[in-house]
Amino acid sequence: MMTDALNTVLEQLADETRPARSLDLAQLSDLGRLQVEQAYSTWLTLSAARRCELMGVLVELAETNIHVNFHALLRACLSDSEARVRELAIEGLWEDEKVSLIQPLTAVLATDAVAAVRAAAAISLGRFVLLGALGDIDDAPAQAAADALHTAWYRRGEPVEVRRRALEGLACTDIAGLPELISDAYYDEDERMRQSALFAMGRSADPRWAKIVLAELGSPESPMRFEAAVAAGELGLTRAVQPLIRRLDDPDGAVREAAVLALGKIGGAAARRALQALLSSEDERMAEAAEEALDEVRFNSEPLSEPLLDSSNRKSPALRERDAEDEFDEEDDEDEDEEDDEDNLFGSEDDGDDLDLYDEEILGEDEDSDPDDDLEDDLDWDDDDQAEDDWR
User: Which CATH number is associated with domain 208-392?
Assistant: First the structure.
């Protein structure tokens, strides 16, 4: 049944002289099937520019107001004739975890004519793969999402922007050959693919990537440093704490915030002290991020009655922290020199260490060396006692 309020807002939608932000778009929330049909009929009469404007506002409103739910209308808009509207609709469905969304997203990934829309669909399907890994949805729908991403990765002619998003979504699966996919992406000529490879390294929770992630924290490219910081947190790399503390003074704000959140995931005394020092930062975003990270440190320090995940390659940060305690004992951290931590927080004479590690591990000392040979060395942990101890 159409309400007067919904009728009114639909009439206002058609008046393209009225700014979208001035409308009571909350009336488009929680629509029933018949209401969606009526609303979408009005939607189709609007110009492409108007639909793009309205969709942008709807997505923004959904992000800032937890009381609205535009999922029904956004699903209808997946078939909009305007590519930007379809892309925004997928982004707006980010919190829609109903497995019934997998099929339409799979169709978009397979058939949409615009790469940006297919990439958005790949990102969204990756959510369902992760939900399956976490046990939040059944295996069958999660596998369907993974199959769609796997097909997209191997589809001939698929551009990098789509394939990289497919790889990111597959990273937490146990598909055969996943390490090879990630290593191929890491040595790809396209920097965007290399960034996604680092993301996948972290999402995979596979310790074989630790050396590369640590080295990339000193990359001269800020997007790579950002992804390395995220991956270090996902992997729970205790050895990354000091490099991450140095990244708190990174010239790129996104890298600084990623380092803060990674320190929260890894935890430990040194990370905690660095985060506590940031609480009084004049940079409000950093201070807020530090507070959030400290909350995670405290949460992960609490004893767990049972593992969060029943999977050896999807350990929670708390479990990874306990696994690493044999070598990186918390009490030893407490005895570290406080002044060293403060120097690392704001920069010190060791600031070049990360770049030196990047030069050594990624670029290599021998200009004639084969990158694939270097990767084989990186992946061979049997003879690397330090790396093995780090992940006991």
Answer: 1.25.10.10
